[in-house]
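for the writeup, i need someone to sanity check this before i put it in the appendix. the sequnce is what the collaborator sent (i think, or maybe the updated version? ugh). structure was predicted straight from it, no edits. if anything looks off just tell me and ill rerun, i have time this weekend
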Amino acid sequence: MTQTPQITPRSWVMIAILGVTWGGTFLVTELALTGITPFWLAASRIGFGSAVMVLVWATRGFRLFERPVRAGDRANLVFIGALSSAMPFALLAWGQQHVTSAFAGVSMAAVALMVLPLAHFMVPGERMTLRRTIGFLIGFAGVFLLIGGQFFDSTGADLESAGRMACIGAAFCYGLSSVQMRRLPDVDPIGLATILLVIGAAIILPTAWATEGPPPLPDRNTLITIAFLGLIPTAAANFLRVAVVRSAGPVFMSLVNYQVP
């Protein structure tokens, strides 16, 4: 998909909704981690979200690509699926055990700065102009000032440095997956949102079992939290993210990360 990004009032509404949705996810994730292990939390929310999206996708006849595609495009789907959900969800769930919520929030704001150079070289029509670069730097500085000194607060955890690297790694996954998503040929947005979650589930479920053993038995409150995470910030938000990236482009989509902290 190489046409010029089309930014409309609808695009702004969608990233506003995404900002509110993802902004509260950090707190809900922390609550969920009191009753389930990190990788199983990621697996549970992706699994639940993908199941919901498959039901929605079925109503559209399981449409995906609008025309025959190359094997490379299908391989790219697997790559994007891993980077869109499995890897960042697991990294964030694990990292948030060892870092402050302020650091996690600022690391997500850094997605915008990562997308800018990636899109410049990989997506036609998304050039890194001086004006755009200055604007993104000002936005990041604003987020940093908003968080204030909390960014430098330490949890005292032994694995805090590793936790911070995990959060930054998750941000890079989101940035690169958005750029790669824009490069796909014409595709049904609901089909794409669904298949990316299905791929993510296929990756994270065996990973969770291999790293943390059989799934724990969460209590009712944890199950409710997992259902919320799977339905709203995973299934619904993933569809909106796909719609924004495919229409308005990855650079515009990255603006949502300034709202999240």
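The CA atoms of residues 7 and 248 lie 5 Å apart. The chain has a mean pLDDT of 85.
thx in advance!!
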